[in-house]
Amino acid sequence: MSLRRSAHLALLVLGLLSALSAYYVAQLRFNYNFNDFYPAGDPDLDYYQGYTRRFGNDNDYLLLGVEAPAGQTVFAPDFLARVDSLTRLARRAPHVVAVTSPTTISNPVVEGLGFFNLPYLHPAEPARRAQDSTLIYRTPGLVGNVFSPDARAVTLVIQTTPDLKKPPGDSLLATLRGGLERLNVPAKDYHFAGRAVAQSVFVDRLQWELAVFMSLSVLLVTGLLWFTFRTWWGVVLPLVVVLGAILWGLGVMGASGISIDLMTALLPVMMFVVGTSDTVHIITRYVSELGYGASKKDALRVTLKESGFGSGLSALTTSLGFFTLMTSTIRPIYNFGLFTGIAVLLAFVLSFTLLPALLLLLKKPQLRVPRQQGHSWDGVLGRLFRTVLVRRRLIFVVSGLVLAASIGLATRVRINSAMLDDLSKNDPVRLDFAFFERQFAGVRPFELELKPGGGRDIYDLQVLRQTEKIETYLRDTYGLRFAASPVTLVKSVRKALNGGGLTEYRLPADPTELARLRSKLKLFRKKPEFRALALPDGSAGRLTGRMADVGSIRADALNEGLRRYLRTSTDTTVLRTRLTGSSNLIDKNNENLTLNMITGMSIDIVMVTLIVLALFRSLRMTVVVLIPNLVPILIVAGVMGLAGVSMKVSTSIIFTIAFGIAVDDTIHFISKLRLTLGHEPNLFKAVKHTYLLAGKAVIVTSLILVGGFSTLLFSSFDGTFYVGLLIGLTLLFGVVAELTLLPLLILFFYKHKPKAVVAQELAVPQE
Fold it and tell me: Does Membrane show up as a keyword for this record (predicted)?
């Protein structure tokens, strides 16, 4: 079979596979599921899932905060009328289970055989405004939950159906915004917070940013390829290969039923910049061979022979950098690592099937730069190589000082995350959430399960007193701004049975009083607030609340203090407790981040070590290769420490990915060096020849990588911004180390020939 016929057959097969991939890509959907960021396989996650089946999910709510117009308080009749209209609108909306609002809260009272709900507010009776406001601000659980402390804002707490998806969530938000608009409430006077808001905003922005990043990456890579090759095919062919790899990678995702989320949205951009590397190495070598007068077929044969080995190894190490993310217990990171790693391997396959087929079918290109003028890159690289040799002591000293400073600064990096870490501080959504932290109880949920011991139930007086002690600690020491538990229920019922007076809002004084009260609890047990706080049989209860989003470092300290208090100050024979909830699970991710990162880096280092040992059978060469790739990682860790950038879910992937990508050029360099040493036994000449041969591709691919990752700096997500910035910096420092430290370390430490000969040749830099 002729080569041209083989090329046509290859293009047909690749075209059919691409069509199949396009079909599955069409099935992809954007999604942001808060639950996906829980640590998969963790015992606490299993426990929490059982807890939610008993008591409900702690983040199935939507907060709507409304500020009173300037010069008014929340007790103004016209303001309360608008709030009441919004309340009725929310209650009628699909997927709404219940609404707690200033105009619906009531003070239950039991008189004789009758049960009455007395409203706290009487908008139609202005004379009662002072009395109403006084009662509200003296009643526990209302201020900070429904009313702001300064009486300038109120909140509607809208309970939604479990695990509300984006389309119905968007519909609910649109309904409420429409109602606010019809009531002439200015946009600056209302605020939303909750799962539905984050889900809606994140998915919409993912779609927009993916389009922006891809457009910027195409423009950037096109410009750099044109600057490098100055031919249309030198631009178009790499773009075709990389776009094909992205299509295949996304097709595998679609076929696996995976959605595009905050992490996997980075796959196309990652592939666009990473996947270009092999094509640049292939075309650079191909053009060099053509420039030396080789025929098209001979140039292609030499190129595939010399580039295939290095590209295969670099694809392996780069994909491993992504595959090691599969050690993460966080599903979005796991999926991102898996499918990006697969896409890297697919890019390698296309680079050595699609690209050669296209080059073979194209006519032999007419090089725009004449042969005798085609050594501009050689001249630049030759001068750079001589400068590196002459300044070798300075390079070693500066590298050592920078490394020492970076290690010192890296110790300042802390693992810390908050609920809305991925949004910048001035983002409108984050400002809305900050409003609820400033004016109300906050948005961070708190959950503690209560299990009576010794044959008691949740309404046992000793159990209630223990629960009340815990509530007091949580309010006074822990920082909980709002709390509800079975104690709340019992106090509320006691108050209702005693005329609704605030002085009666307390636990029964003795078991006899409690026994009389328990018989009345049955009147209220069907109310939703009872079902949410205690099981019908009284076998377990729930202490729930909200607080400020203090960040995981502070939360870990608070939780440790709480656990210590529960161990030392509660009687476990009376009441057992367990901290749970969505916030607790998100905080637990931090315990795994460092371990996952160290595991991923260790796997990468072991694989690179094995590759270098297989190539050179030299431990010294292994150390020589690792140093220029670990130094940039440590420098960027120092930059993080200096800038105060915390380690969190989104930034934890940086070092593993950066090392996997940065080592790519090193693998290309040493694989070419190994080939060169096959016919050039002189180490100095072999290193110099490899430097001139691989230097152009190293610089060009690094520029493409740094430029491609710099497009992520336009993201509105802080995590994506820092991924672009820090990986870009790592690769930038990496190419500097590649062109300075790597050749010096090889010449000084790799035992390929007698050291005296190397020293003699270093004394007189060669042309």
Answer: yes
Q: How confident is the model at residue 111 (pLDDT cuts 50, 70, 90)?
A: low
DSSP 536: T
**In the 3-class helix/strand/coil scheme, how is 495-533 assigned residue by residue?**
HHHCCCCHHHCCCCCCHHHHHHHHHHHCCCCCCHHHHCC
Secondary structure of residue 98 in the 3-state scheme: strand
d(CA 657, CA 71): 55
**Using CA atoms, how far apart are residues 463 and 486, in angstroms rounded to an integer?**
10
Residue among 596, 721, 720, 724 at smallest CA distance from 265: 720
**DSSP-derived pairing of the beta strands 482-484 and 541-547:** antiparallel
Of the candidates 225, 173, 178, 236, the residue with the CA atom closest to the CA atom of residue 199: 173
Fill in the amino acid letter for 758. Answer: V
Determine the angle formed by the axes of helices 195-229 and 166-182, rounding to 10 degrees. Answer: 110
Give the other-Cβ count within 10 Å of 375's Cβ.
14
What ranges in 644-682 are assigned the alpha helix state H?
Answer: 654-677
pLDDT by residue (tens digit) across 522-542?
A: 766 666 677 788 888 889 999
Rounded Cα distance, 340 and 392, in Å = 38
pTM value is 0.78
State residue 95 phi and psi, 5-degree precision.
70, 15
pLDDT at 752: 58
CA distance 199 to 654: 24
Helix (H) or strand (E) holding 117, with range, is strand 114-119
Each as own residue / partner, the long-range contacts of residues 391-400 (CB below 8 Å, 24 or more positions apart, any chain) are 392/744, 392/762, 395/740, 395/741, 395/744, 396/744, 399/631, 399/737, 399/740, 399/741
- CA torsion through residues 259, 260, 262, 266, sign: positive
Give me the residues paired with residue 727 across strands.
none
Compute the distance between CA of residue 277 and CA of residue 706 in angstroms, rounded to an integer: 12
**Residue 529 and residue 442 in contact, taking contact as beta carbons nearer than 8 Å:** no
Residue with tokens 């609910």: 172
Rounded CA-CA distance 387/380 in Å is: 11
